[in-house]
């Protein structure tokens, strides 16, 4: 049987990289026009292009060209691939973002071209998380194409192999033997010579050609060269295109292919921290859109009100566009970076409005008049977008009406006292005003509850086992001793397990400064470990010593950099909160928060989209989503776990028992160097100025419930202040619930094509689970069994049978 070469004419287009997106649009338009011209010149030439966003641009701004493309898709000369909105980074976005990449990308392709993309396609993305095989299969794609990590960075059992994800799902992955584009030095002729060697080992090969990165595509010269290969070498079967045919052929021999399990990592480890603001805003937008959709769906289920579907979808598409690998990884110049930051601002504004006005509709029936015993109050309702009962701390600043000139307190809808603590004003903290309130409401799953801010100095003061002295914080679970010289924690004593966690002679939450003479990507770097300094204590004081929460405020400095930090313990919660405000003024440096623990035989686990995965404890930099955990043996040689949940952290490393969260990197904007090393030059660098970080520490011998803790930390209740008016109820509202808590709902949204509700579940612990989702009267419960790390999606309609579908909301009738 003849060996086969598939000639894949393409143009990898970075629509944002060393140029702004508007120039990216121009390159898309010019490249697509050039491809259509090549088709006129050669009837066998086939062009392959992914990225639904690019097609959307052409449809919007050049409908005539778009019709030409539609005709060429029908004839087979134009091949669609990828199925996603963009070729995104494959480590930073959360699971639901990957679901939406496929949902919007594949829906666009199906509606415009009458077909779905069948091959996943991210040729230039820098690494690929181990949950992608399951995601791809649920988006009707069973092949995966990527050039990174290359052969020098990741050894595969074969260049075409079976990729098995963390849940056991399998796709065929192929890493082409040459790069995805042609250059002056990497011509079609050079590629062809590589192919002939490659075919001595493999039955078929993918030869990608066409000018790329800034677009361009196949040239007349490229096509002429390929014609020469076809005419001169009859021992090889030459095929114009087609990716789908290549993967179909590999699937016919899938049982003979070797298997690679888990992640496909790593390429550029520095990019998971570079440009902190983009990472922070991406995560914020993901969480705000979750809340906006969930609360809107709660209203839709309970009141049949309208649902802002178009606004939500457009907001999601803006987030997805910013997840393009060069944007989200922070590797663009300053002007392109600012474009992306502006896009996030528009999304936040839209999501906030959608969530809040939906919450107001949901709570409109509450009777918000002052309860018996109070003359006037301020009604405040809390709406929980998560389908799990939640009891988490909240802070509110009641409108400063005359009734609240004194310190406000909290009562429930019936006027019963609720434990609370007055805390410092955000507006005038220097005056010592305590006009905000901290308390812990218990809000039903996907539900709402009414409270009142009241002026009643007669309410009892809460009490409990929470103490603070000059440098010691203590509750029922933890005793924290802060070093008066460094500001780090010199002792973290687990009272429940009777064990000290800080490594002898060390301090945790040290703020380390590292020399980082790498390019923007961190090219050729596995570890960042060149520590050259540490922030030193400037001052420390007691900030809060109330009954529910006690806090230290610590100020530290390093050269021209300053921090304002808060370390907090709650009376009734078993976590430790760290809030760090940094003014950063260092170039070619990195900032890490260090936690050297007293543990042995450690293993580390990181959240990935819809799952978690084990990674090395050898000090190498690892991408981190919302949480990471270290498991090992404590000083008593007993099993112990320490977890960190970070709101805005994107990477971490674990070196034996030391955990280091990477907070900031300050390389040049968008600078790439072949060996990765740069000189310290006087040019603008990333991440200067003010930044805020929040992370939460957990410890114990059993499940720390980090996935639930991450939801609680990242997805707050929506708060509605309301004037006094009559209503039909003071009771709590509950719309949707999901059990057990280890099964999470990643989306609760309106279906794209009908009146149904889409519910997506995923198992978080790597264990088989029986789950049930309950709705109001008339809605049949969703009962299902999930395999370890399995994702399941359902279409839910009142009074009708629950139907399982895939991520594209397509029902499989088999």
Descriptive tags:
814 residues, 13 helices, 7-stranded beta/alpha barrel, alpha+beta, nine-stranded antiparallel sheet, Substrate Binding Domain Of Dnak, Chain:A, Domain 2, six-stranded antiparallel sheet, single chain, Immunoglobulin-like
SSE order and pairing:
Blueprint: E1 3-9, H1 21-41, E2 47-49, H2 52-61, H3 63-75, E3 78-80, H4 95-113, E4 119-121, H5 132-137, E5 143-145, E6 160-164, E7 170-174, H6 188-198, E8 204-209, H7 220-232, E9 236-240, H8 243-252, E10 259-261, H9 276-303, H10 309-322, H11 325-328, H12 334-362, E11 378-384, E12 390-391, E13 394-396, E14 409-412, E15 417-418, E16 420-423, E17 436-439, E18 442-443, E19 447-454, E20 467-468, E21 472-474, E22 478-482, E23 489-494, E24 499-500, E25 510-515, E26 531-534, E27 536-545, E28 549-558, E29 561-570, E30 576-584, E31 589-596, E32 600-608, E33 611-615, E34 622-623, E35 627-633, E36 639-646, E37 651-655, E38 658-665, E39 689-700, H13 706-714, E40 718-722, E41 733-734, E42 737-739, E43 743-750, E44 757-763, E45 769-774, E46 782-786, E47 791-796, E48 803-805
Parallel strand pairs: 1-8, 1-9, 2-3, 4-5, 5-7, 6-10
Antiparallel strand pairs: 6-7, 11-19, 11-40, 12-18, 13-17, 14-15, 14-19, 16-17, 19-41, 20-21, 21-22, 22-23, 23-24, 25-26, 25-31, 27-28, 28-29, 29-30, 30-39, 31-38, 32-33, 32-35, 34-37, 35-36, 36-39, 37-38, 42-45, 43-44, 44-47, 45-46, 47-48
Helix pairs in contact: 2-3, 4-10, 9-10, 9-12, 10-12
């Amino acid at each position: 049987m003849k060996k086969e070469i598939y000639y894949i004419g393409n143009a990898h287009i970075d629509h944002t990289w060393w140029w702004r997106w508007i120039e990216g649009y121009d390159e898309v338009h010019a490249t697509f026009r050039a491809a259509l011209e090549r088709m006129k010149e050669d009837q066998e030439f086939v062009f392959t292009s992914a990225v639904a966003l690019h097609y959307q641009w052409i449809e919007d701004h050049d409908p005539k060209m778009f019709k030409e493309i539609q005709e060429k898709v029908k004839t087979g000369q134009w091949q669609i691939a990828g199925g996603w909105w963009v070729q995104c980074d494959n480590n930073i976005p959360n699971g639901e973002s990957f679901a939406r990449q496929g949902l919007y990308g594949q829906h666009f392709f199906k509606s415009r071209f009458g077909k779905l993309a069948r091959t996943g396609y991210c040729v230039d993305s820098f690494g690929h998380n181990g949950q992608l095989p399951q995601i791809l299969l649920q988006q009707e794609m069973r092949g995966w194409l990527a050039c990174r990590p290359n052969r020098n960075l990741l050894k595969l059992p074969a260049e075409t192999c079976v990729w098995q994800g963390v849940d056991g799902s399998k796709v065929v992955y192929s890493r082409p033997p040459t790069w995805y584009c042609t250059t002056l030095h990497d011509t079609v002729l050079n590629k062809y010579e590589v192919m002939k060697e490659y075919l001595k080992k493999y039955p078929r090969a993918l030869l990608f050609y066409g000018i790329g990165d800034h677009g361009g595509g196949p040239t007349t010269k490229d096509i002429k060269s390929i014609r020469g290969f076809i005419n001169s070498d009859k021992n090889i079967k030459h095929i114009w295109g087609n990716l789908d045919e290549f993967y179909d052929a590999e699937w016919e021999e899938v049982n003979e292919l070797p298997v690679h399990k888990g992640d496909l990592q790593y390429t550029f480890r520095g990019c998971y921290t570079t440009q902190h603001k983009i990472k922070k805003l991406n995560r914020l937008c993901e969480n705000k859109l979750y809340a906006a959709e969930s609360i809107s769906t709660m209203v839709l289920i309970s009141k049949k009100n309208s649902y802002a579907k178009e606004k939500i979808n457009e907001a999601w598409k803006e987030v997805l566009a910013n997840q393009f690998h060069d944007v989200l990884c922070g590797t663009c110049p300053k002007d392109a970076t600012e474009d992306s930051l502006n896009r996030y601002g528009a999304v936040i504004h839209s999501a906030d409005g959608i969530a809040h006005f939906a919450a107001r509709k949901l709570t409109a029936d509450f009777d918000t008049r002052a309860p018996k015993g109070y003359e006037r109050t301020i009604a405040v309702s809390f709406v929980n977008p998560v389908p799990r009962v939640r009891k988490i701390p909240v802070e509110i600043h009641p409108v400063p009406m005359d009734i609240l000139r004194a310190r406000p307190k909290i009562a429930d809808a019936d006027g019963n006292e609720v434990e609370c603590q007055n805390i410092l004003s955000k507006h005038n903290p220097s005056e010592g005003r305590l006009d905000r309130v901290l308390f812990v409401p218990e809000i039903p799953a996907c539900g709402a509850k009414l409270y009142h801010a009241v002026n009643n100095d007669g309410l009892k003061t809460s009490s409990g086992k929470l103490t603070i002295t000059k440098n010691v914080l203590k509750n029922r679970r933890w005793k924290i001793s802060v070093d008066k010289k460094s500001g780090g924690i010199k002792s973290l004593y687990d009272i429940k397990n009777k064990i000290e966690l800080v490594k002898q002679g060390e301090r945790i939450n040290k703020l380390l400064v590292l020399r980082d003479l790498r390019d923007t990507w961190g090219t050729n770097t596995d570890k960042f470990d060149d520590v050259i300094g540490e922030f030193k204590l400037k001052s420390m004081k007691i900030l809060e010593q109330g009954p529910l929460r006690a806090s230290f405020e610590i100020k530290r400095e390093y050269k021209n950099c300053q921090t304002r930090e808060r370390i907090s313990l709650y009376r009734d919660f078993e976590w430790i909160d760290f809030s760090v405000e940094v003014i950063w003024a260092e170039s070619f440096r990195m900032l890490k928060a260090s936690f050297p623990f007293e543990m042995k035989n450690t293993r580390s686990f990181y959240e990935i989209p819809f799952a978690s995965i084990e990674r090395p404890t050898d000090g190498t930099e690892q991408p981190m989503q919302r949480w990471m955990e270290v498991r090992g043996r404590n000083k008593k040689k007993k099993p112990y776990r320490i977890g960190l949940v970070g709101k805005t952290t994107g990477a971490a490393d674990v070196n034996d028992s030391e955990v280091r969260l990477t907070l900031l990197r300050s390389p040049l904007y968008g600078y790439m160097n072949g060996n990765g090393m740069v000189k310290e030059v006087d040019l603008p660098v990333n991440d200067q100025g003010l930044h805020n970080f929040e992370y939460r520490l957990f410890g114990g011998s059993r499940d720390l419930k980090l996935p639930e803790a991450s939801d609680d930390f990242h997805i707050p209740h929506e708060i509605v202040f309301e004037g006094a008016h009559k209503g039909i109820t003071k009771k709590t509202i509950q719309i949707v619930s999901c059990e057990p808590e280890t099964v999470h709902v990643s989306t609760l949204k309106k279906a794209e094509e009908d009146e149904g509700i889409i519910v997506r579940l995923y198992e978080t612990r790597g264990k088989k689970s029986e789950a049930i989702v309950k709705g109001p009267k008339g809605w049949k419960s969703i009962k299902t069994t999930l395999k370890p790390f399995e994702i399941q999606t359902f279409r839910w309609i009142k009074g009708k049978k629950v139907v399982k579908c895939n991520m594209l909301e397509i029902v499989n009738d088999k």
